[in-house]
Amino acid sequence: MAEDALSDVLKTVRLTGATYFDIVAQEPWSVHSPVSDLILPRVLPGADHLIAYHVVIEGHCYASLVGGEPVPLEAGEVVVFTNADPHIMSSHAGMRAEQPTADFLDIADAGRLPFHVNLASGGSSSARLVCGYLACDSRPFNPLLEALPPMLKAGDPRSNDTGWLGQFIHFAVAEVADKRAGSESVLTKLSELMFIDVVRRYIETLPTQKTGWLAGLRDPSISKALALIHARPSFSWTIEGLARQCGVSRSVFAERFVQLVGMPPMHYLAQWRMQVASEMLNRRNLNMAAIASEIGYESEAAFSRSFKRTMGVTPSAWRQGVRSAKK
């Protein structure tokens, strides 16, 4: 059930990978990431949320959010910045880096994927990384993004990782090196799978006292409730009905849901319906009446009122790309 809810979120927020850099570096080196506002319009137009990742395929380095503690990385490990916050990759802990110019983006504009960046100055390299960006929709409702920390590290270089993360690293190295036809599409799909594997690993390490949407996926009753809501958003769910399906009392269920997910079950249902609706609005062949019915509204007018109340714009305006400042 937990995997169903996670899969549903990933499907409706349209996770996609794009823009990859093959970086070879020689000590000492440090790179400051470009800010999201520079990256999005040039390499991922139309996206409203950016995720950055760096996979170490040779050597070692450090990663840190600007102003944060440096985290060591070895070959076989990956670091994901879930909001693409400003960060520094460097050969040694505590190194500073100048605010980036548009150099990396100019390379991206001029070449074909993957983009090659040489920081070795003609000498032997001390590290090699495959870096890239993932895009997804953060609005109207993306409980996964809200539940993730700004920085995630995964992988175990000592265990000869054979999971998705290990396979991603092996395949990414091959795709970058071989430059075969279709490499861009392969790297895109691989990066999406890599991100999902990193999220799964993070869920598995959550302490039992942890709260949040991801913690809810590990709770038997809340996980089942989330899966039911996601599977049938048009159904007239009630707290009593969900509690009965999950085999717990109404009071225990309601309290536990708010404790873990951070909002009442009916509020979550309303938010999820809007997320499903927004994804369906992207499909031009679906009319408003069909969308309204699909998410549980008896009339197009009722759906339109609810959507505007939640999103600040009408469904028609949303379909045309209009977004309000409301979140």
Unreliable segments (pLDDT under 50, ≥5 consecutive)?
Answer: none
Mean pLDDT: 82
- Share of helix among residues? 40-55%
Helical stretch count? 14
Proportion in β-strands: 15-25%
Q: Based on helices, strands and strand pairing, what is the structural class?
A: alpha+beta
Shape: globular
Using the CA coordinates, give the radius of gyration.
22 Å
How would you spell out the order of helices and strands?
Answer: HEEHEEEEHEEHEHHHHHHHHHH
**Beginning-to-end CA distance, first to last residue:** 28 Å
How would you sum up the major sheet? Answer: 9 strands, mixed
Query: Can you count the beta strands?
Result: 9
Write a structural description.
The chain has 327 residues and is α+β, with helices and mostly antiparallel strands. The protein contains 14 helices and nine strands. Strands 1, 2, 3, 4, 5, 6, 7, 8 and 9 form a nine-stranded mixed β-sheet that branches. The longest helix has 23 residues, at 183-205. The radius of gyration is 22 Å and the shape is globular.
